[in-house]
Amino acid sequence: MNVSLNKNNTTVARVKLLIGGEWVESQTTEWLDVVNPATQEVLAHVPFATAAEVDAAVAAAQKAFTTWRHTPIGARMRIMLKLQALIREHSKRIAVVLSAEQGKTIADAEGDIFRGLEVVEHACSIGTLQMGEFAENVAGGVDTYTLRQPIGVCAGITPFNFPAMIPLWMFPMAIACGNTFVLKPSEQDPMSTMLLVELAVEAGVPAGVLNVVHGGKEVVDGICTHKDIKAVSFVGSTAVGTHVYELAGKHGKRVQSMMGAKNHAVVLPDANREQTLNALVGAGFGAAGQRCMATSAVVMVGAAKQWIPDLKALAQKLKVNAGSEPGTDVGPVISRRAKQRILDLIESGVQEGATLGLDGRDITVAGYEDGNFVGPTLFTGVTTEMQIYTQEIFGPVLVVLEVDTLDQAIALVNANPFGNGVGLFTQSGAAARKFQSEIDVGQVGINIPIPVPVPFFSFTGSRGSKLGDLGPYGKQVVQFYTQTKTVTSRWFDDDSVNDGVNTTINLR
Ligand code: NAD
């Protein structure tokens, strides 16, 4: 164990780096506390790696690539099979650590790990996922085929809100494709990520194939500008994701940036009332609203607005408590800073004239008085100019807008710059078909509030929620983590006829 939960602040573990197969204590002078958001207990100290340590991690990955790229696909696949078995075996133990450092409930922490485990399971199919294409006889005796080759050292930069799922979106698929990897987990909750990395090492990922450096802006910028890194996967906020996309792109890397969101749920009056209200409350307030696919704006169409009192009543019933307490629905938000930002945005909503139907600001949780809690908060009478609508709040705050028709709802959603997820609630197939066709959002749920695709598909957020063409996991990420090489070949029989010099570009 390189990290552990420890109630004594003076002896908490220092989170290690992983470089070339060695667990290394950073030589940095800059350390950050990893804090339990329900109690403010310091769980560990995380280093901000030095530039030399980042260089060493990339060099280890570069060295390992020379052999790993030639490791047979079956051998890579068997490591993924072992890794998925180990994650399954250790999931409950990791969920406890994840809940402690991130704040989400134990059940949701297990879900965080499970959604990442599904990607590892899919990585076990790399044999068929990484196949090239073949066309016989494209010209006389000429065949053309493609190889999907690994690209080299890839890097991943991950956010705090899914410390298991999002690292597992990245390194298993990159490694299964034959690349080596440098991971930079969120500095706010790196411990559960490290437990997964330990399992990867135990599963047989060779030294240097997976490396981990910790840190913030300087380490991220070091990754984005490093000459030996070929591709960068980023998940996090829009401001940082845009910076990473531009900086890494300028330095010649492939980049995919999955970023912030404002996800709408459009409710038609013919929807199943109870199921819809359950979905809105679960997706709006689950994980304290700290999901990139959380429902954060509800658009009530026509008579659906009559359901607002029921929505409020259901939200009011949610139990706010530490994630480790049984029966908790809503845990704390990640940090005091995050809480203050949420409170400021709520205040802006009040100042800008929205109606605060449910106010979660003054909540105290018995036994956890120091926790970063915000109770479920509901605004009605919201307009599209208000900051509570234009900003991603990333807290347990749901804003409700009202329109008269489905067309108006579609126009409203399409005018919002984000395009991560959207839900439609209806019993009308015709309305659903029109919606899925006309809505300009990359991931659509029909009576599904959080439509995160399973890993045989890809995560396809769009517009302001994503930069780069290819999304994480699924077939798209195999394209992202491989280079297509096209081979055009011709073999001569011993008795082939001399067909002379060809000075044209045509194959014949
Ligand atoms: P964040 O952008 O603050 O941090 C993400 C990563 O960037 C971290 O590893 C962090 O160390 C690093 N970082 C932070 N500031 C930096 C800077 N100035 N320069 C360079 N690197 C920096 O995001 P977060 O608060 O950890 O995560 C929440 C955000 O992530 C939300 O906006 C959420 O919507 C988004 N998110 C998006 C998706 C998606 O798939 N679209 C999934 C999960 C989370």
UniProtKB/TrEMBL annotation:
<dbReference type="GO" id="GO:0006210">
    <property type="term" value="P:thymine catabolic process"/>
</dbReference>
<dbReference type="Pfam" id="PF00171">
    <property type="entry name" value="Aldedh"/>
</dbReference>
<dbReference type="InterPro" id="IPR010061">
    <property type="entry name" value="MeMal-semiAld_DH"/>
</dbReference>
<dbReference type="GO" id="GO:0004491">
    <property type="term" value="F:methylmalonate-semialdehyde dehydrogenase (acylating, NAD) activity"/>
</dbReference>
<dbReference type="InterPro" id="IPR015590">
    <property type="entry name" value="Aldehyde_DH_dom"/>
</dbReference>
<dbReference type="InterPro" id="IPR016162">
    <property type="entry name" value="Ald_DH_N"/>
</dbReference>
<comment type="similarity">
    <text>Belongs to the aldehyde dehydrogenase family.</text>
</comment>
<protein>
    <recommendedName>
        <fullName>methylmalonate-semialdehyde dehydrogenase (CoA acylating)</fullName>
        <ecNumber>1.2.1.27</ecNumber>
    </recommendedName>
</protein>
<dbReference type="InterPro" id="IPR016161">
    <property type="entry name" value="Ald_DH/histidinol_DH"/>
</dbReference>
<dbReference type="GO" id="GO:0006574">
    <property type="term" value="P:L-valine catabolic process"/>
</dbReference>
<keyword id="KW-0520">NAD</keyword>
<feature type="domain" description="Aldehyde dehydrogenase">
    <location>
        <begin position="23"/>
        <end position="487"/>
    </location>
</feature>
<dbReference type="InterPro" id="IPR016160">
    <property type="entry name" value="Ald_DH_CS_CYS"/>
</dbReference>
<keyword id="KW-0560">Oxidoreductase</keyword>
<dbReference type="InterPro" id="IPR016163">
    <property type="entry name" value="Ald_DH_C"/>
</dbReference>
